[in-house]
Amino acid sequence: MNKIVLQVKELGKRFGEGCPRCSGGDPTALERNYCPACGTVYALSDVSLDLFESEVLGIVGESGSGKSTVLNCLYFDLEPSGGEAFIAQYKNGNESIFSGSGQTRRYIRNHVFGKVYQNPVLGLKMKFSSLANIAEKMIAAGNRNVGAMENRARELLTHVSIPHHRMKEAPANFSGGMQQRVQIAKALSNNPPILLLDEVTTGLDLSVQARVLDLVKQIQRELSISMLLVSHDLGVVRMLADRTIVMLNGRVVERGLTDQILEDPQHPYTQELVYSLL
Amino acid sequence: MKSLYNYAFFDEGSKREIRRASLKAIAIPGYQVPFASREMPIARGWGTGGLQVTLSLIGKSDVLKVIDQGADESVNAVNIKKLVGKTTGVETTEETERATLIQSRHRIPETPLREDQVLVLQVPIPEPLRFVEPSEETTKRLHAEADYSGAYLLLFEQIMRYGRVSTGADHPVEVRDRYVMAPSPIPRFDNPKMDHSSALILLGAGREKKIYAVPPYTRVVSLDFEDHPFEIEDVTGRVCRQCGAVDVYFDELVDEETGETFFQCNDTSYCLARMNAEADR
Ligand SMILES: Nc1ncnc2c1ncn2[C@@H]1O[C@H](COP(=O)(O)OP(=O)(O)OP(=O)(O)O)[C@@H](O)[C@H]1O
Ligand SMILES: [Mg+2]
Ligand SMILES: [Zn+2]
Q: Could you give the ipTM of this predicted complex?
């Protein structure tokens, strides 16, 4: 078995203070992920997962099930309410990355993770050139050489098929598919061992979707990066993920090999999801 | 003379508070200290930040000089001088050497400043990261974490667009290896004058309610890249048509009769002093 590159333990994220009724962790106190008594949203409850070297782990689930929240917590965009996450690059995996200082977090964010946001507006500076968008992550990692950064950015943008003459253009002028490809190039800029992909193809035309998926596949093959691939579309996950976890109301309800889950779904929600795909 | 106003316009409490903010700013070089910006009889954006700092510091024995983009005679500079003069009775001057307190907009005088002088710069936008990050809460965090990627990103973008760093003015600086600061819209030509300046430099932003400082003899480095080192505006080959000065910051003017362009010191009092010295010889 390959080694684990990321281990998430009992991750929790709550929006709201909680109340005596809901804070005991009893799922029956909630309506889906929401406490009707105090209005607190339990976006994540006890989410645990392992990500192996050069593996693609799919995360599926309906809208609001907490998929983006998992990635946002790992990328430090959101402060989790509980739980831990371990990577080999931080204290040999002996301490949770959430206990790190601002500077440590920045280091991890820039060197260990690359992220593609569900909403490109969050992942890109829409009015800056695409080259500068790629360079941003390199600058953040401490690079101070314009020539080196420009070369690397051009190489990456070429890799994701942004035409040479458009590299100085701002992503605001680009189609959705192109914006996602710029995000992918940016995520790859510092050669991170782990990619966090949040709905990379959602909202794109089918033909554009296929191209972006091919790109992700190609990157995975060439660079053997580990990926957490979030999608509400089981079809996307089927195409890319070796293993899959299924989320519902902020909890993991099923996990296993993707093929197995597709052939023999156990949880009623997964069954519904799989049958709707057929 | 009996004045209608308090000495230096403000009540003592207000002046003390501004001085406290200034002291804190000096203690943490380059760090933007918030202060309760006062209402002024001139509109915000016309140097109220600098003016408040000046008024909080000025003593009876001070000699005040006010410059606006290098000129002592501009309406704005004259109005500020009038206001301070009326409410304090202090002497004003156009000679940099004679001044103890110099309030300036967009320039640092050509004449090197001394330890017994204080330079007050007027600041429109104190936050060097504002163009990349609109939220004050976020920029505060970025300063706390010394995360200045955004400032470098702006410079990188200029190089992508124009082939070189195109900050006409207000090129960001790092102060004493810690805080990145907007030097106010002075030309890049003036940035090196901040480095290890003998005079204390205080920067005041009225609208944004911030005071920050470069204490004397403090390291100030203009941000740049390994392969795009910081450069001042190139003035080689330029000579002031009036006083013959070289290596100063120039205004480029057009001779209305001949249509030719020519150069003149932007710092008018420096130019005048040189011409007077020439005449005396
Ligand atoms: N800032 C917030 N305040 C309150 N609730 C929030 C906030 N952000 C997210 N939530 C809630 O957290 C839950 C999980 O949201 P999340 O965005 O992770 O879902 P998702 O699985 O990514 O959904 P989608 O497929 O629509 O992207 C949802 O119920 C959402 O409404
Ligand atoms: Mg989502
Ligand atoms: Zn509750």
A: 0.90
